[in-house]
Amino acid sequence: MTPKDIALAEQLADAAGQAIRPLFRAKFDQESKSDSTPVTEADRAAEAAMRSIIEAECPDDGIIGEEYGTINEGASRQWVLDPIDGTTSFIAGRPIFGTLIALMQDGWPVLGIIDQPIARERWLGVVGRPTIFNGQPAQTARCRELKDAVLATTTPHQFDEHDADHFMGLAGKVATRKIIYGGDCYNYGLVASGHVDVVCEAGLMLHDYAALAPIVDGAGGMMCDWNGEPLHAESDGHVLAIGDQSRVDDVLEAIACHH
């Protein structure tokens, strides 16, 4: 990982933000994709802006983008882009979406950015380095017992029946009046900054989670799948973020044992 890579990632986030901000709470085109998820002209403009920079600066690198697909699929270095993670929040005028930018090396995430362009909040994670939030180190919170934990998920409606059963096993072990819904990638930034203790999701795609692991891990937490395995390009989309590593076993036990 070089300073040039970090600078390029920040340049990508700046470009995405410049494309998104003029359209926030404004009139914009939107439609539904084949999977019924919404997409707006802001999603497409932000990804197009980032892709053009990568293609100019690193033409041999691969790109995996939510809106415009994959190029240079066999490259060992892959930029993974989600221009607006939380498009529904963007459409609703809620500034809790984010731009996700990851750099993967041989299938493993080594750099990640969560950028909230309206609040101008940015988390930067690089493997082997402390996570930075708006220029200062980020730190996850201690959580003495799982029953005290703040748990976040985007929506329980995204779990199928089997996954929902396991999620409820976890939900039953945390502070039930502190469970929060909504937030998409923003929740993982809040874990890194010590405000949320656990995030649980299922059905995520690579562009939804690749940027998150370096950020949470670099702030002192842990990201893994529901079996406790680290996240990589072949992970199945069952994702946990845990702020206090001493609670990892508790979380895994809670999510595994409910039937």
Quickly give the structural class. Answer: alpha+beta
Strand order in the largest sheet? 4-3-5-6-7-8-9-10
Cα Rg? 17 Å
How many extended strands? 15
Name the beta content range.
25-35%
Pattern of helices and strands: HEEHEEEHEEEEEEHEHEHHEEH
Coarse morphology: globular
Task: Count the DSSP helices.
Answer: 8
Which percent bin holds the helix content? 25-40%
Low-pLDDT stretches = none
- Measured distance between first and last alpha carbons: 43 Å
| Mean pLDDT metric | 95
Largest sheet: 8 strands, mixed
Describe the structure.
This protein is an alpha+beta fold and 259 residues long. 30% of the residues lie in helices and 25% in strands. It has eight helices and 15 strands. The protein has an eight-stranded mixed beta sheet with strand order 4-3-5-6-7-8-9-10, with helices on both faces. Strands 12-11-13-15-14 form a five-stranded mixed beta sheet, with helices on one face. Strands 1-2 form a two-stranded antiparallel ribbon. Helix 1 (3-20) packs antiparallel against helix 2, helix 4 crosses helix 8 (248-256) and helix 5 packs parallel to helix 7. The longest helix has 18 residues, at 3-20. The relative contact order is 0.14. The model has no long low-confidence stretch (mean pLDDT 95).
Chart the SSEs and their pairings.
Blueprint: H1 3-20, E1 30-32, E2 38-40, H2 41-57, E3 62-65, E4 69-71, E5 77-85, H3 87-91, E6 98-105, E7 108-116, E8 121-126, E9 132-133, E10 136-137, E11 151-153, H4 161-171, E12 180-181, H5 186-192, E13 198-201, H6 206-209, H7 212-218, E14 222-224, E15 239-242, H8 248-256
Parallel strand pairs: 3-5, 11-12, 11-13
Antiparallel strand pairs: 1-2, 3-4, 5-6, 6-7, 7-8, 8-9, 9-10, 13-15, 14-15
